[in-house]
Amino acid sequence: MSHPPPPLLPFQIAAEGRGAPPCKPGFSEDTYKVVLPDTVEEGRPLFHVDFLDCGRGAPVRMECNNPSDFRIEADGVVYAARSLQRSPQHALVLLVKAIDGTTQQQWTTQVRMEPPALSSQQVPDASVPPAGNTDLMEISFPSRRNSQLKRMKRDWVIPPINVPENSRGPFPQELVRIRSDHDKSRALRYSVTGPGADQPPTGIFIIDPISGELSVNKPLDREHISNFHLRAHAVDLNGNQVENPIDIVINVIDMNDNRPEFTHQIWNGTVPEGSKPGTFVMTVTSVDKDDPKTANGMLRYKILSQTPESPTSNMFTINNKTGGIITVAAGLDREKVPQYTLIIQATDMEGNPMYGLSNTATAVIRITDVNDNPPEFTAEMFSGEVRENRVNVIVANLTVTDKDQPNTPAWNAVYKITGGDSTGRFSVPTDPTTNEGLVTVVKPIDYETSRTFVLTVEAKNEVPLARGIHYPHLSTATVSIRVMDENESPYFEPNPKLIKLEEGLMPESALTIFTAQDPDRFMRQKITYSKLSDPANWLRIDPNTGRITTIATLDRESSYVKNNLYNATFMGLDDGKPPASGTGTLQIYLLDINDNAPKVFPQEAEICEKPEPNAINITAVDGDLNPNAGPFAFELAHRPFDVRRNWTITRISGDHAQVGLKIGFLESGIYEIPIIITDSGNLPMSNTSYLRVKVCQCDINGDCTDQQHIMAAGLGTGAIIAILLCIIILLILVLLFVVWMKRRDKERQAKQLLIDPEDDVRDNILKYDEEGGGEEDQDYDLSQLQQPDTLEPDAIKPVGIRRLDERPLHPEPQYPMRSAAPHPGDIGDFINEGLKAADNDPTAPPYDSLLVFDYEGSGSTAGSLSSLNSSSSGGDQDYDYLNDWGPRFRKLADMYGGCDD
Predict the structure, then answer these.
(1) What share of the chain in percent tops pLDDT 90?
(2) Which CATH homologous superfamily contains domain 164-253?
(3) What whole-number distance in Å separates Cα of residue 284 and Cα of residue 287?
(4) What residues have CB less than 8 Å from 673, skipping those under 6 apart?
(5) For residue 400, how many other CB atoms are within 10 A of its CB?
(6) Torsion-angle region of residue 731: left (phi > 0), alpha (psi -120 to 50) or beta?
(7) How far apart are CA 63 and CA 51, in angstroms?
């Protein structure tokens, strides 16, 4: 359906293209040009665009991209939506869209609106012409003078060429024609250079070298490249430049082809509960890749929904330009609605719902807690009980409720005792888990003083309540506490108790009465007393009355007395259930009396035989205190008489004196000097002390050279004990050695003789286990060796003899074994048997050998044991084999085996 133009339009509208295909649905022209005055009134019709429907019959809806300034009706007439003040230097491009209401098919066209000033100068139109248009705008090179390549000042500036992005073609699409005035006289060639032509991205713009028609070869994307700067050239056929290059600017006109994008899909914000309307919450933002200077990139925000819709559906509002969210209604209550969820929409085209593109995001608004709910006790009265004298025990739990967020300062309760505890015996800390108040005893309570307590406790939060909210009556409670009686320990008063008296007090003397008191005034109880600590065992206490008497003499100089004080501890025990006890300390301050005689110190010293320059310095010691001690008087005793003759004593001070030799020389030795020392007591006490002095030879330094000076000084108790221990150890070692020797003799008696007596031609050296008598031989009567005639032959038992020189190579002869406990008369038989065995030993060397017997006595009546004179040595013995032993034994062979001479 065709819409005729309205009559008498005040402005001219001209089509730049006239070659549209016949009966093709769409606008009659792809581009329209309109001249508008500088000032346009609101509601005035401006121009008309014609839409061809080719008999489709379906209605179309007209829209424009700037609905805030222009309004288009269904018949294609465009009106001013408001009063406009146009710039006389710039043109405006308006996009008009036709939409099929049934198929949603769309057609677009553009209208170039120019001010009269630009139109009067006949500025070439830079709008995109339709394909095949022969009336292209021409851009001419400026004329030159004198054929020089000097750019001359132009009368006008070449306007930029505007090309809409995302054009559907067909391509290539002509833009402008470049021409030079010299093409009339000669053939020229045109070219363009720059990004988009011969530089990356190449191939976007091409030029016909003969006609000079500049075309675009593909759709443009403003978000990728918003403008192109090209340079046009004109040369002759020889390649000579005939014109100065001119600059051509191609602007890519923005289309609304990008939706707004939120920088975050979910936005989180907070606002305190109870906030007043207009309280800022947060700001949401989105971006649009389209040109922000046009309506395509101008965004508007709005709230689509609110969840939950309580207490109203419009608790928040949003600034449609900045995206700032603020509260718009009162009634935010975290205890009722802790969180709100908003769906936020951003729309371009300045929020036009018909033309603009939209996108959404989610805003989560959390309502933060404020202290708008005070703690309230669950009951007005609480009760508890506690035993007296107990501390750090919980007697009652106070429970409260608070609607604020748990475990926050607005929920945490703080308890304070406001009445009933003037002595500060209770405290109410808070249980951090349950928020309960724990009534705790912090000081001991005496049942005899207070039997009940009634406390007033107030509960508050850690932070103050919000403005305008007051604590209710239930924020205060009463706590009733009952005290239970317990059997308390008796106590001594005073404790410790100090008394003063002189030492030396005799046994069975009364000292004092030390009694305890029972704090349980409401119980009839009896207290018995006993002694806990009495280090010197001097005291006794009456179990019923507490009277303390002495059982021994009090001595201030005792090791149990420290700084004149003697401490004894006593216990008082009541008969309660269970019994309770208390302790008290009695301190006895002992006054000194003169009951100790002075003594000399040190008691041992050394001095040289020649006293000069040596002398002995002595000191008097007294267990008493002044004035019962020093100053002391020193003198030598009158007996023995040589003391005063040999020694002298000189007083140096009240406590010191010096002892020296009175004579020029005194022999070395140990001397005991009696010294009489008298103290200064009211009744003076004297004592004769002995100073043990060793007189010794001294070197040039005055030191004793006697090695026995340690013995002269005497042995102490420790040295004596050490000597005794050494003697005992030595005796034990001797005893063990004797036992070991007896066991060894028993083992030896079980062995056979190692010597074969049949082949021996000489006496051998025989050795018993121990020279001078073996261990078992010591049991014999050795006097029998002196008188062999008195031996009893029947009781003789041979004893084994062991060779020392060599071991026989052939079977050994059987030597007689000696009895373990022989008769003394066996010694003679034992010796004879040994002699016989030695004579018959063939392994013995041919010489007399020394025989070692168990006992070698002097003056024995026994005959010689030499094998040379033995009766058992027969003359028929053959000793010729000794000649084979070498020259040394030949003489022996002659002696034994030769003739009598």
Answers:
(1) 28
(2) Cadherins (2.60.40.60)
(3) 11
(4) 636, 643, 647, 659, 690, 691, 693
(5) 22
(6) alpha
(7) 13
CA torsion 739-741-744-749 (nearest 10°) is -110
Largest CA distance in the chain: 200
Can you spell out the DSSP letters for 839-855? HT-TTS-SS------S-
Radius of gyration from C-alpha coordinates of the chain = 71
Asked if residue 394 has pLDDT above 90, the reply is yes
Specify burial of residue 784 (Cβ count, 10 A radius: 0-12, 13-18, 19+): buried
The secondary structure of the chain in percent helix, strand, coil, rounded to multiples of 5, reads 10, 35, 55
Q: How far apart are CA 224 and CA 227, in angstroms?
A: 9
Please count the residues of the chain: 901
The answer to whether 262 and 208 are in contact (CB under 8 A) is no
pLDDT, tens digit (0-9, with 9 covering 90-100), for 290-304: 989 888 899 999 999
On the 0-12 / 13-18 / 19+ scale of CB atoms within 10 A, 147 is: exposed
272 DSSP β-pair partners: 368
Bridging pattern class, strands 39-40 and 138-140? unpaired
Confidence of residue 693 (pLDDT cuts 50, 70, 90): confident
User: Could you say which DSSP state residue 443 is in?
Assistant: S
**Could you tell me the two tokens for 95?**
């996009």
The rounded distance, in Å, linking the Cα atoms of 284 and 269 is 10
CB atoms within 10 A of CB 215: 17
pLDDT band at 556 (very low <50, low <70, confident <90, very high): confident
pLDDT at 598 over 70: yes
* Residue 176: closest CA among 205, 147, 146: 205
At the topology level, CATH places domain 41-114 in Immunoglobulin-like (2.60.40)
Kindly report which listed range (77-91, 647-661, 700-714) carries the lowest average pLDDT score.
700-714
Contacts of residue 21, defined as CB under 8 A and 6 or more positions apart, other chains included, come to none
Q: Do the domains spanning 261-368 and 376-484 agree at the CATH topology level?
A: yes
- What CA–CA distance (Å, rounded) separates 225 from 162? 13
Classify strands 266-272 and 358-368 as parallel, antiparallel or unpaired.
parallel
Cα separation, 545 vs 807, in Å, equals 99
The residue whose two tokens read 């005063």 is: 644
Output phi, psi for 880, to 5 deg: -65, -25
Q: Which amino acid is residue 133, in one-letter code?
A: N
Name 262's bridge partners. 286
Domain boundaries, the chain: 41-114, 164-253, 261-368, 376-484, 491-591, 599-696
CA distance 118 to 109: 22
What is the rounded CA–CA span in Å between residue 1 and residue 56? 7
Q: Which stretches within 586-661 are classed as H helix?
A: 641-646
Round to whole Å and give the CA distance between 1 and 121: 37
pLDDT at residue 156 in the model: 37
Query: How does 29-60 read in b/e, with b if 16+ C-beta sit within 10 Å?
Result: bbbbbbbbeeebeeeebbbbbbbbbeeeeeeb
Domain 376-484 has CATH 2.60.40.1120: no
Q: Which two tokens stand for residue 301?
A: 């925000």
Is there a cis peptide before residue 277, judged by omega within 30 degrees of 0?
A: no
What is the CA 215 to chain-centroid distance, rounded?
A: 78
* Fold of domain 599-696: Immunoglobulin-like (2.60.40)
CA dist., res. 133 & res. 503, Å (int): 146
Rounded Cα distance, 42 and 264, in Å: 41
CATH of domain 261-368: 2.60.40.60
Give the H or E element holding residue 600: strand 599-601
Beta-strand runs (E) in 552-615: 565-574, 581-591, 599-601, 604-608
CATH of 491-591, one of 1.10.3210.10, 3.10.180.10, 1.10.10.10, 2.60.40.60: 2.60.40.60
